[in-house]
Write a structure and sequence with these properties.
149 residues; Rieske Iron-sulfur Protein; alpha+beta
Length: 149
């Protein structure tokens, strides 16, 4: 009887803790001459694409997506409020949702609205079929990923 109760509680805890969106696939990137370049064709589908950059002793996670207005958006997979949880964001339709506090952020406003629980924006440009990020911003983004290697 006790064993059955433990199994039921463990199963319920597993469902509660691990339900929701599966972990996104991460693509590891490197910099060349202070720039990180990602093919625009890789992010043209309206879905969030997740990347990691190794900045010294830490991995910095970020995502790119093309929002409904046609702009490519780039942000750290962290925010000023919930970054210590290291949970990041998931995509639900046209929204990015904080995996820690469940606040929703319209994709069109990423890089526009800053601070609080909004995804921490990254400066990006699109040139010659590439989305280009500044390596320095990714290095500075290490503060959002404490004890993360």
């Amino acid at each position: 009887m006790i064993i059955a109760a433990v199994v039921v509680v463990a199963a319920a805890a597993g469902i509660f803790l691990f339900s929701g969106s599966p972990a996104p696939a991460l693509n590891y990137v490197t910099a060349d001459a202070g720039k990180v370049s990602i093919p625009l064709a890789d992010v043209n589908d309206g879905k969030a694409h997740y990347y990691k950059y190794k900045a010294g002793d830490r991995s910095v996670s970020f995502f790119l997506l093309k929002s409904r207005d046609g702009s490519v958006r780039a942000a750290l997979d962290a925010c000023d409020v919930c970054y210590k949880s290291l949970k990041g964001y998931r995509q639900e339709g046209n929204f990015m949702v904080c995996n820690n506090c469940n606040q929703k952020f319209e994709s069109n406003l990423i890089n526009v609205v800053k601070g609080g629980c909004n995804p921490a924006p990254l400066t990006r440009t699109v040139a010659n079929g590439q989305v280009v990020l500044h390596e320095r911003e990714l290095i500075d983004g290490r503060r959002y990923f404490p004890n993360n290697s």
